[in-house]
């Protein structure tokens, strides 16, 4: 119990890290005001607290003046050396944190450089997939790939990621945790600390980073000519791999298809659009909704987006190819973003049954905006909608056939098909 309390205390600290940093700054200002304000020029102090902005926009003159006031206090009284770069970075980080959107963040030059490493399905890491609760910042292992350092060290699905090395990672942007702490140079060691619910204690596991080739698409033909395709994420290589799997299964006589998107966190929009285009015919129309956003008559709308002004990209099928067999899509609470685009489109056109549990519910789009000196911000800029106009954000997609994975299977790295009760239900749904 003591270990669990320690974790949740640490989790809370991690989730509120930026808030606490802001509170420390407020506390410093208050302390200076109470005991040392005579040391500050009265004119500067007055300028920093002048008239409130009447129209609700940020008063940049007042903010700049206040920052200058704080800096003058730092210059005169701060005991230790000031790292100007870090101070400036945290001003910007704090500004975006104030938007209260976990997906909108500021990246330092070093963070942005690592973020922009090519997403081509290969990297030096440990071979695990993680997801983050947007409310608490807690990071959980959702999948462990066989034959990888993570699997060999003993990491299991469901483990809560507490530390990477000496760094507590709860509350840190998930992309940065992966690229800045988990990934690294080939052959270098990394220690992962997890909280395992069953054990009720922390477990430290040290492993060596290796070149990992992520199997984004795996497939096989099951009994009764049921094709099975598992997609672990939507990467730049995924669409071609998926189309290749479809082609091979069709040559082998596929009569039904199950696409497994469980624990798939999403990925590249172009990949999921290309995959949907390959499956769906080009001329599907959803009847009965005159308010649907549609600019191309008799074209299959795959997904569309809308920004704060109601404008955004629309994606349509156009390749002339379709897959004309009964389909089911396996989903769960970690099927997010691009996985929900894929599932939502097939559900909207009644081309597949969703089997499993409700999806994650991330129906918003982020864009990277490069800034000066190699820095950048990632900002939420639009909602995306299924072809039927459904906004799934914070709602998720409900399965047509709800079924929970058996409890004893949730921590297994590899689940055999004959024991996978969700897969069995998906196959039954196609009969």
UniProtKB/TrEMBL annotation:
Keywords: Hydrolase, Membrane, Protease, Serine protease, Transmembrane, Transmembrane helix. GO terms for biological process: proteolysis; signal transduction. Residues 112-179 form the PDZ domain. Gene3D superfamilies: 2-enoyl-CoA Hydratase, Chain A, domain 1, 2.30.42.10, 3.30.750.44. It holds the Pfam family PDZ_6. GO terms for cellular component: outer membrane-bounded periplasmic space. It comes from the Bacteria. InterPro entries: ClpP/crotonase-like_dom_sf (IPR029045), CtpA/B_N (IPR055210), PDZ (IPR001478), PDZ_6 (IPR041489), PDZ_sf (IPR036034), Peptidase_S41A (IPR004447), Tail-specific_protease (IPR005151). The chain crosses the membrane at residues 12-35. GO terms for molecular function: endopeptidase activity; serine-type peptidase activity. Belongs to the peptidase S41A family. This is Carboxyl-terminal processing protease. It comes from Lacrimispora xylanisolvens.
């Amino acid at each position: 119990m003591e270990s669990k309390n320690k974790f949740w205390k640490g989790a809370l600290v991690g989730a509120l890290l930026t808030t606490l940093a802001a509170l420390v700054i407020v506390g410093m200002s208050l302390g200076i005001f109470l005991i040392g304000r005579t040391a500050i020029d009265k004119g500067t102090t007055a300028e920093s607290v002048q008239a409130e902005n009447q129209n609700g926009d940020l008063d940049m003159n007042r903010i700049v003046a206040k920052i200058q006031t704080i800096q003058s206090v730092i210059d005169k009284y701060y005991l230790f050396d000031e790292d100007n770069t870090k101070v400036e970075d945290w001003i910007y980080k704090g500004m975006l944190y104030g938007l209260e959107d976990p997906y909108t963040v500021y990246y330092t030059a070093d963070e942005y450089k690592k973020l922009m490493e090519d997403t081509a399905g290969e990297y030096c890491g440990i071979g695990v997939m993680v997801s983050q609760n947007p409310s608490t910042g807690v990071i959980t292992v959702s999948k462990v790939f066989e034959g990888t350092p993570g699997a060999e060290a003993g990491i299991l699905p469901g483990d809560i990621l507490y530390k990477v090395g000496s760094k507590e990672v709860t509350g840190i942007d998930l992309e940065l945790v992966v690229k800045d702490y988990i990934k690294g140079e080939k052959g270098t060691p990394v220690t992962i600390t997890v909280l395992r619910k069953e054990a009720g204690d922390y477990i430290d596991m040290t492993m060596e980073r290796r070149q990992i080739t992520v199997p984004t698409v795996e497939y096989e033909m099951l009994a009764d000519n049921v094709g099975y395709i598992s997609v672990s994420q939507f990467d730049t290589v995924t669409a071609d791999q998926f189309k290749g799997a479809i082609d091979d299964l069709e040559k082998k006589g596929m009569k039904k298809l199950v696409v497994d998107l469980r624990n798939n966190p999403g990925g590249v929009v172009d990949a999921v659009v290309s995959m949907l285009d390959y499956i769906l015919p080009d001329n599907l129309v959803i009847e009965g909704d005159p308010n649907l956003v549609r600019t191309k008559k008799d074209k299959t709308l795959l997904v569309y987006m809308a920004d704060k002004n109601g404008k955004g990209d629309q994606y349509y099928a156009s390749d002339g190819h379709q897959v004309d067999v009964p389909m089911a899509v396996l989903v769960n609470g970690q099927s997010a973003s691009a996985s929900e685009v894929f599932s939502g489109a097939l559900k909207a056109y009644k081309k597949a049954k969703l089997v499993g549990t409700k999806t994650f519910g991330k129906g918003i789009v982020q864009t990277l905006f490069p800034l000066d000196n190699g820095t950048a911000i990632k900002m939420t800029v639009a909602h995306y909608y299924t072809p039927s106009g459904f906004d799934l954000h914070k709602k998720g997609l409900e399965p047509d056939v709800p079924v929970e994975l058996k409890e004893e299977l949730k921590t297994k790295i590899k689940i055999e098909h004959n024991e996978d009760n969700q897969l069995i239900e998906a196959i039954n749904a196609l009969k």
